[in-house]
Specification:
834 residues, alpha/beta, Rossmann fold, 3 domains, six-stranded parallel β-sheet, 22 strands, 48% helix, binds ligand 9L8
């Protein structure tokens, strides 16, 4: 039976129970929470308590709007968009909430009256690390834009107990420690123990024919897990919308436990409980790598099953009749953030066919009209391909459904392409081989009405190479949605000095509409303005240099060019190209210490997957080069190498405002989009980049003159590889490059172990240099020289910096989301009145 909203008239008075944004009211509320929520007094209150209480105050302000938003969507029966993602890297909430609710000033004032400094207190918030990198951060930027654009929508994911590991650097090596982010409690979430769903695993499928002679399937003898909802409010920018991010936590089911307890087997009961609850225990720390682990598959299904049950429960509140399912996709759009939640396609089919008793065709129409899929990578090692044997054991009914989808699909492909076996083999959901596997990308394409890439080039590659056969079959399904970032966090919040300068020059409409930044274009000719622009960057660099002195014990020349590469460590992203270039700079300086060169501080930040040997060795190499360079008296203050530990959203917020140069140097054709590239440009850094991912569009927007492009294009890279690439030829013909590689190879940077870095040089010279580092080196080096030349002319550099900021309006995630709304979801904004 559909659940009905029952109103309690006596609770009408709740509407009068609201809170004020006056300073005194905020202070009272803060003190109230200190005493009655935390039970602390003037002797025992710590700064963390202060952070918690001010967060409770901010959350109280969110709650009215949140309840109101959810109630309005229900009353208007609005079409809802569901963003399903295994990762949400939302970052700290306090600063963002205060900006979006427009209560920064009164809160700062109230805190000051109680003797606290808001800026200092903000640092006590634990940065939730429920994601790896770009894919998780994109999901978070999208939520901010969805709320700011008043789109009825929800984020759904997993409440991992442990987020992405903490990275410590010990003796130059990455060391991982657990991120126990819930240790001190999380004031932003509200547990919803009333939203409980059973999620089934394992078991077997029972077939029977019902009274009407129809074949039915029942999934039986399952092991059951309970999903509990935790909700986090997501405020829009200065509007009344507060969306919900619902994350699921796994609990063992009570019946399951009782069975054991009644048999007196307490130990097994406890062991099973622990086993069950491991499902939501920890985020897998891989970015762009598919591991194929059973626990990961269980995470994916656990969250998909709970989410679909919740979506259907909500749908049935307004549409209680079974026949209403015919219009399901008029009210529900589900966006799959990569294939990680793609099992949802088989799950919705299972619900419609096995539980709601729809015929296959009807169920399939509803399913494909509901789902949309975003692809984020073409790297073969990242594509999810679950083995049939694993799926058969964990999700036996889903495997049957996938086979049925595949057989109907292949029949259609055969008819359409005259039984072309190559097409059938490529497009099949089943990959044949030593071990049969299910290609989740193919399932996602077949089961969705929209497939999008995340930059113009990436979408072209999807259409022309990776999924070309699907594109031939369904050209209208494929579309591009170039990624974006939210300017609320990535400029307004993280760079207060630049934000203030921009707002005093062109007003503050840019916070809502980033294309307003175009108004800065004429100011790029205004020398007084450029002077102020430089001062802002300089003071941001000074603050960062102070941090380096305190935390890294390196002194950094504030006037040096801050040359930055912040991203996951991956061979295709080519941090190695950057550090090899550093070695060549070092060698030139050693040969001629008096050389007049533009001083550089080359800054790296990023985590490596714990099992990724080469990425971890590259971290060690960067730190070993840093050791040599930073403490060599010949180098003076002309060159520094810094590796910043534990890159995260909050660390990105402190680093980006100080960047002069943004390194976006992946091999063309490998980085689907990149979003760090956009964050740097928005904070006034110039880019040195390959023609890859969204770099191409950034170059187009900011103008060729204001962007340092280098290297092979994706087409050139492709044909070089196909025509027998010989990395050794580049090494033999470039003495500077040869010298640098020989030093790394022979142990110059690893005197304690001369062989340490051999695998790195070996991968380049003897293993085929998969990412064409040597082929791009000369072009990179030459372009870096041009960078230095321009940097010498500070007026020219800052002019280009202004033009970068002025022309990044396109890269707001608001623009991206509006494109999804119009082209894919067919959703409408719903204005929330107070
Ligand atoms: N590398 C892309 C980046 O270019 C893009 O900007 C970003 C947002 O669209 O997505 C990044 C991306 N992440 C992943 C990814 C693949 C996985 C994974 C975990 C397991 C298996 C594969 C986590 C992340 N693909 N693309």
């Amino acid at each position: 039976m559909a659940e009905k909203h029952k109103k309690n008239d006596k609770l009408d008075i709740l509407n009068e129970c609201t809170i004020s944004t006056e300073v005194d009211a905020i202070m009272t509320s803060f003190l109230h929470h200190m005493k009655y929520t935390l039970g602390k007094d003037e002797y025992t209150a710590t700064k963390r308590d202060c952070y918690k209480c001010i967060s409770y105050v901010a959350r109280d302000h969110l709650i009215d709007k949140w309840l109101n938003t959810q109630q309005t969507y229900y009353e208007k029966d609005a079409k809802r968009v569901y963003y399903l993602s295994l990762e949400f890297l939302i970052g700290r909430s306090l600063g963002n909430t205060l900006v979006n609710l427009d209560i920064e000033e009164p809160v700062a004032e109230a805190l000051a009256k109680t003797g606290y400094d808001l800026e200092e207190i903000k640092k006590y918030e634990w940065d939730p690390g429920l994601g790896n990198g770009g894919l998780g951060r994109l999901a978070a930027c999208f939520l901010d834009s969805l709320a700011s654009l008043e789109i009825p929508s929800y984020g759904y994911g997993i409440r991992y107990e442990y987020g992405i590991f903490f990275q410590r650097i010990r003796n130059g090596y990455q060391l991982e420690t657990p991120d126990n982010w819930l240790r001190y409690g999380n004031p932003w979430e509200i547990e919803r123990p009333e939203y409980l769903y059973i999620v089934k695993f394992y078991g077997n499928v029972k077939q029977y024919t019902n009274g009407a002679g129809t074949l039915r399937h029942e999934w039986v003898n399952t092991q059951d897990v309970v999903a509990v909802a935790y909700d986090t409010p997501i405020p829009g920018y200065k509007n009344n919308t507060v969306l919900n991010m619902r994350l699921w936590s796994a609990k063992s089911s009570r019946e399951f436990e009782l069975g054991y307890f009644q048999h007196g087997d307490y130990e097994s009961a406890v062991a099973d409980k622990v086993q069950t609850e491991t499902i939501s225990k920890v985020l897998y720390p891989n970015d762009n790598i598919f591991e194929g682990k059973e626990l990961r598959l269980k995470q994916e299904y656990f969250f998909v099953s709970a989410t679909l049950q919740d979506i259907i429960r909500r749908y049935k509140k307004n549409h209680p009749e079974r026949a209403d399912f015919n219009n399901f996709s008029d009210k529900v759009a589900i966006q799959l953030n990569d294939t990680h939640p793609a099992i949802a396609i088989a799950e919705l089919m299972r619900i419609l066919v096995d539980e709601e008793c729809f015929g296959w065709e009807k169920a399939w129409d509803i399913t494909t009209a509901t789902f949309c899929y975003t692809n984020h990578t073409i790297m073969p090692e990242a594509l999810e391909r679950w083995t049939v044997s694993l799926l058969e054991r964990v999700l036996p009914r889903h495997l049957e459904i996938i086979y049925e989808i595949n057989s109907r699909f292949l029949k259609m492909v055969g008819e359409r392409f005259n039984g072309d076996v190559n097409k059938l083999r490529n497009m099949s959901l089943v990959e044949e081989g030593d071990e049969k596997r299910i290609r989740m990308a193919n399932l996602a394409i077949v089961g969705s009405h929209s497939v999008n890439g995340v930059s113009a080039l990436h979408t072209e590659i999807l259409k022309d190479s990776l999924f070309s056969d699907f594109n031939a079959l369904w050209p209208k399904k494929f579309n591009n949605k170039t990624n974006g970032i939210t300017q609320r966090r990535w400029l307004r919040l993280c760079n207060p000095a630049l934000s203030a300068l921009i707002s005093e020059s062109i007003g503050e409409k840019w916070v809502r509409d980033l294309t307003e930044l175009k108004k800065l274009i004429p100011l790029a000719e205004d020398s007084a303005f450029l002077e102020k622009w430089r001062e802002v960057k300089w003071s941001n660099k000074l603050s960062l240099a102070k941090c380096f002195e305190d935390h890294n014990r390196v002194n950094v020349n504030v006037d040096s060019l801050f040359d930055c590469q912040f991203k996951r460590i991956h061979e295709y992203k080519r941090q190695l190209l950057n550090i090899i270039h550093v070695v060549t700079l070092y060698n030139r300086l050693k040969e001629n210490p008096a050389m007049d060169m533009v001083p550089r501080s080359v800054i790296f930040a990023g985590k490596a997957a714990p099992g990724y040997f080469m990425a971890k060795l590259i971290i060690k190499l960067i730190n070993s080069v840093a050791q040599k360079v930073n403490f060599d008296p010949d180098i003076k203050d002309k060159l520094r190498v810094i590796f910043v530990e534990n890159y995260s959203v909050s660390i990105a917020e402190t680093l980006l405002p100080a960047a002069d140069l943004s390194e976006q140097i992946s091999t063309a054709g490998t980085e689907a989009s990149g979003t760090g590239n956009m964050k740097f440009a928005l904070n006034g850094a110039l880019t040195i980049g390959t023609l890859d991912g969204a770099n191409i569009e950034i170059q187009k927007e900011v103008g060729k003159n204001n962007f340092f492009a280098f290297g092979l294009t994706d087409k050139q890279a492709e044909s070089l590889k196909n025509s027998g690439y010989n990395p050794r030829a580049y090494y033999d013909n470039n003495p500077v490059l040869k010298q640098a590689l020989d030093m790394i190879d022979s142990g110059y940077f690893s005197p304690e172990n001369h062989d340490l870095f051999k695998p790195i040089v070996d991968s380049l010279l003897n293993q085929g240099d998969r990412f064409l580092l040597l082929a791009d080196f000369a072009s990179y080096e030459k372009t870096q020289q041009q960078v230095s030349e321009v940097y010498k002319n500070q007026a020219l550099w800052s002019k280009r910096s202004v033009l970068n900021v002025a022309n990044t309006g396109f890269f707001s995630s608001d623009r991206t989301i509006m494109e999804y709304v119009k082209d894919i979801w067919d959703a409408k904004a719903v204005h929330i009145k107070i």
